[in-house]
């Protein structure tokens, strides 16, 4: 025999269950509220005890005991550092950097002062790969003969072409104020020593600007000395007088040969110094 269930009874049972659940939830809320009020009253009692003799309402100290969340910044990625270098370089006026380079047969690298060539640099490649086009600077020949390296003025490292018209030949001391005229009037004969390098990897200090008289500020030299401690770089020359047309007998290679610019044959009689 089939038994037919009364749907009205089922609905009434469901409603009773819902009502009972609502009552249970209300009871729980009331208990939580009572607990919270008790906790607040306890805190108020503590605060009142602390603030006896003071005017004004007691302050709840619970919120004051909450600790602010600790922010942990993730380290910058290589891509972010390259973008930062590009932005900083574009903002710089003179766009100068101290960089390091390896030297054949030398145990320690050498430092060099370079200037980013804004027109020749591919800025997209600079941002993505850290590659920049730079021009080299050297001490003024006259300054190098009487001043410490860190006190010298730094000029464009210009060279005369060899007979083939392409290979870099003798170095020609050239004042910064005269280099544009020299290269525009005699571009077939002279060039500014320049190169495309991975500046992101080679950089030691920079970008920075020239100080008065095309010198480098003391704080920049100090920064270079501090950074160089973490690398294998020959730094013993910056506090000495080392004429550019004389060998540095304290800087020798594995065969005991002193470092020298003499291989470029100095040209000092062209009237551009």
Structural description of this entry:
By secondary structure, this protein is an alpha+beta fold. The protein has a domain at 78-264. It contains seven helices and ten strands. Strands 1, 2, 3, 4, 5, 6, 7 and 8 form an eight-stranded antiparallel sheet that branches. Strands 9-10 form a two-stranded antiparallel ribbon. Helix 2 (78-91) runs antiparallel to helix 3. The longest helix is centred in the N-terminal third of the chain and has 44 residues, at 7-50. The chain is globular and about 100 Å long.
Overall, the morphology is globular
Report the uncertain regions: 1-15, 36-51, 262-273
SSE order: HHEEHEHEEHEEHEHEE
CA radius of gyration is 37 Å
> Approximately what portion of the residues adopt beta-strand conformation?
15-25%
Number of extended strands: 10
Helix content: 25-40%
Q: How many distinct helices?
A: 7
In round numbers, the mean pLDDT is 78
Assembly classification: single chain
């Amino acid at each position: 025999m089939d038994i037919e269930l009364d749907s009205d009874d089922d609905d009434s049972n469901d409603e009773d269950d819902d009502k009972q659940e609502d009552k249970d939830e209300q009871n729980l809320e009331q208990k939580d509220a009572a607990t919270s009020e008790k906790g607040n009253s306890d805190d108020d009692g503590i605060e009142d005890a602390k603030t006896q003799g003071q005017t004004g309402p007691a302050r709840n100290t619970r919120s004051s005991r909450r600790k602010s969340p600790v922010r942990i910044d993730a380290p910058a990625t290589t891509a972010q550092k390259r973008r930062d270098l590009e932005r900083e370089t574009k903002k710089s006026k003179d766009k100068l950097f101290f960089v390091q380079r390896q030297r054949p047969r030398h145990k320690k690298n050498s430092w060099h002062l370079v200037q980013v060539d804004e027109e020749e640099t591919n800025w997209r490649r600079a941002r993505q790969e850290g590659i920049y086009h730079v021009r080299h600077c050297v001490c003024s020949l006259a300054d190098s003969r009487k001043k410490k390296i860190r006190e010298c003025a730094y000029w464009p490292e210009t060279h005369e072409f060899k007979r083939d018209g392409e290979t870099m030949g003798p170095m020609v001391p050239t004042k910064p104020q005269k280099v544009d005229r020299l290269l525009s009037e005699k571009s077939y004969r002279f060039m500014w020593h320049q190169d495309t390098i991975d500046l992101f990897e080679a950089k030691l200090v920079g970008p920075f600007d020239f100080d008065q008289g095309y010198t480098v500020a003391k704080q920049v030299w100090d920064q270079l000395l501090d950074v160089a401690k973490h690398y294998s770089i020959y730094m013993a020359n910056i506090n000495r007088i080392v004429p550019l047309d004389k060998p540095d007998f304290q800087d020798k290679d594995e065969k005991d040969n002193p470092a020298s610019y003499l291989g470029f044959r100095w040209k000092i009689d062209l009237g551009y110094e």
